[in-house]
């Protein structure tokens, strides 16, 4: 396991977040997105995140400070009020640091941050072929609840996705639902 610090993302992290996300885009196994992101676009994306939808990074120490090697973020699941306690999540780890426990640390940290923010569930969609991400989600307490068939096209090919979910603090979720 690589020793990393998990912390809230900062504007200065935008270039590293873009680099890591672009690796996922190029790999065609983690997202339907095909257009690479810039540091400026990721900075604007970061600015839109708030306490309700945290964005965290994993950073490792280096001689000149630290290096961001992974990130995880939540976003609105659906705009309807009844779904306000559910968030979608995305997690990406730099290709040179995969398999070192960073993804697991990020998922545990985002689950805790999301629960503190009053969320009661995290959900995502994973390509069936992405066995590493599916195994990571399972180890982090996510369950597979089904498959969306022909969910979207990637490079002209229909792709299915496996839906994963993790319930957070059940008591907090019940209280949040009453608000």
Summarize the structure.
The chain is α+β, with helices and mostly antiparallel strands. The chain has a single domain (5-178), classed as Aminopeptidase (3-Layer(aba) Sandwich), CATH 3.40.630.
Q: Report the CATH topology name.
A: Aminopeptidase
Number of strands: 7
How do the helices and strands follow one another from N- to C-terminus?
A: EHHEEEHEHEEH
Note poorly predicted spans.
Answer: 171-179
Q: Give the strand content.
A: 25-35%
Distance between the termini: 40 Å
Main beta-sheet annotation: 7 strands, mixed
Determine the mean pLDDT.
Answer: 92
- The helicity comes to 25-40%
**Helix run count:** 5
Oligomer: single chain
CATH architecture: 3-Layer(aba) Sandwich
> By CATH's scheme, which homologous superfamily applies?
Gcn5-related N-acetyltransferase (GNAT)
Secondary structure class reads alpha+beta
Describe this structure in words.
This protein has helices at 14-27, 39-47, 102-116, 131-139, 170-178, and strands at residues 5-8, 55-62, 65-76, 86-93, 121-126, 143-154, 157-167. The chain has a single domain (5-178), classed as Aminopeptidase (3-Layer(aba) Sandwich), CATH 3.40.630. Helix 1 crosses helix 2 (39-47). It has a 7-stranded mixed β-sheet with strand order 1-2-3-4-5-7-6. The longest helix has 15 residues, at 102-116. Mean pLDDT is 92; it is low at 171-179. It is globular, with a radius of gyration of 16 Å. The protein is of the alpha+beta class and 179 residues long.
